[in-house]
Amino acid sequence: MAVNILKIGKNAVAYTWLVRPRRFLKEWFAYPYVASWLLALIVCFSTSRWWADYQEGYRWLIVLVPAYRLLEILRWWLSLIFNRRHYMVLSSERNLIFLALNLLETVFVGAILFRATGVASSLSGCWYASFFLVTQLNLPGAATFWQQASKALIEIASLTLLLGGLSALIALVGGKLREGEWRGPTERADS
Which residue has the higher pLDDT, 179 or 81? Predict the structure, then answer.
């Protein structure tokens, strides 16, 4: 059931729309795609000093774009974890690089959500609260429902990414290692 939901969600992802014409279906396209999203999130966060004082309805309209990106990231990593047919990636090392970039994007999405809900009053306070939440170092204080919901969403996202990264790392190490008789730190038993 989860895999079917993820397949439906794949059609709602901008990356799928862009690679559907097949001219962008190249292995290098993921790099400018993630870089452009990261730049958009940085711009959205850095301009929050102006839009943080808007009425709540306008703030949530601005937050829709970063929230969409977060759901897009979550859909990919959940597909990697749950979909058994997701068996091939270009390289596990590349996945770990994108994991780091996706975690950074999650930090910025969290900072934007925290700025919109008023978790902290300063840009740096929101960014560090989000950073500490994504890296599992600390939970920011939250009093209102939307602050709690933002915190829960970022926590779920960061745990999903960390679980997906752990599974990619296990697959990488599992592909290089196998069981056998020990004959020293670098020698394989069958050689």
Answer: 81
